[in-house]
Amino acid sequence: MPAPEVVTAAVGRNVRAERSRKAWTLDDLAARSGVSKGMLVQVEQARSNPSIATICRLATALGVSVASLVEAPEMPTARVVSPGEGIVLWSGKPGSASTLLVGSGTREQVELWDVRMAPQDGYAGEAHPAGTRELLLVIEGELTLEVDGTAYRVPQGAAAAFVADRPHAYRNAGDAPLRFAMTVVHSPAARLPHPPPAAEAESGPQRP
Q: Contact 51/126 with Cβ under 8 angstroms?
């Protein structure tokens, strides 16, 4: 897999490029993402290894996918990601990891993840922009999927789909390792550029 410093540098470079493309200041992005200006400076200068929660907040605020922030922007006609070449963006207990395998590199912005969880481990996902959907296929073990406070059992070989713009979590409540494939399909409407800060200021006070 890519070295952490390579991923950190890619995130910093891509966040800075997206922010510049929108002509946003650091204060603008901080207000839209909920990530402090100080943290943004560290991210853009590749002096901090941002958590998956921070990357998700930045991707949402910038209207791009997580993949577009952690990968190089070029996407060949075909791409093979060999074992160990994915980008680990979350890790928990030994044996637990959430790995971004590949992004579509297209306007639709689809991501493919390989998620592994040790027994009694799990994590809460960030609520995505409106209309974002996730598709899951359990390869090994049993997944407990929580969406809006409701738990769903997804056994080995079963699949699930849900709207991911609300609180959700993935948990391994069993005694055996869990592995599932996850596809995140971003809503095109959620990626429309935000109006410039000046336009928002003219339309009235901003909500906190």
A: no
pTM of the predicted model as reported, rounded to 2 decimal places? 0.63
Dist CA 127 CA 106 (whole Å): 22
Whose tokens are 């598709």? That residue is 135
pLDDT, tens only, 37-77: 999 999 998 888 888 888 888 988 888 878 878 875 555 55
Q: Indicate the CATH number for domain 4-63.
A: 1.10.260.40
- The token pair at 89 is 């963006």
Classify 194 as helix, strand or coil. coil
Taking the domains of the chain in order of start, what are their residue ranges?
4-63, 87-189
On whether the CB atoms of residues 10 and 71 are closer than 8 A, the answer is yes
Q: What is the pLDDT of residues 121-153, one digit of tens each?
A: 999 987 888 888 999 999 999 999 999 889 999
